[in-house]
Here is the input.
Amino acid sequence: MDKAWYEVGNWSLDANMSPKLDKALTEFTSRIDDEMFQRFGQEFICIVDCAIGASTIRPLDVACAPHAKKKFRHQVYIMIFRREVERLSEKATLGEVAHEFAHLLLRLDHKIDSETIPTGEDMADTLAVSWGFEEEINLNLAEWEALEGPTRGRGHAAR
Here is the structure.
C-alpha cells in the first residue's frame, strides 16, 4: 500500500497492519451490538500493531485546529498491539482485540486506567466475556501463558 494509514469513521488504522489483526478487528466490530459499535465509533482511535513488549491503550490529548483559539482539545486513543500477536491463533487474536477494547471502555465510561491497577486485567477480561468473547479470552490467556509463562500473560504486568 502506498498510504501509511486508512480511515474508518473516526478511526485511523495502520495500513501495514497484519492480516490476522485486521481480520480480528473486523470480526470484533461485527460481533459487538449496535450500541457498543456506536459508542466506540464516537471516539478517535488510532490502531497500530507494532508495540514491543505489550499491547496497550494510551490517550493522547490534542488541540483541535478549527477551535484552537477556544482551546478545545480532543482525546485520541492510541491502541497498540504488539508484534507477538502474530504468534497467536485467530481466535486468541480476537480475544486480544476484545480485551484491549474492554480496557478502552473501562477508561471511557468509568475513568479507570485498568492497565495500571492490580485487578485491571481481570476487569477487562470479565467485560470482554460479557460481550460474548469467553472462548476467545480463555484461548488468549492460555496461548500467552504457553508462549511466555504463567507470570507474563499478555505482556502486561504480572497478575
The chain has five helices and five strands.
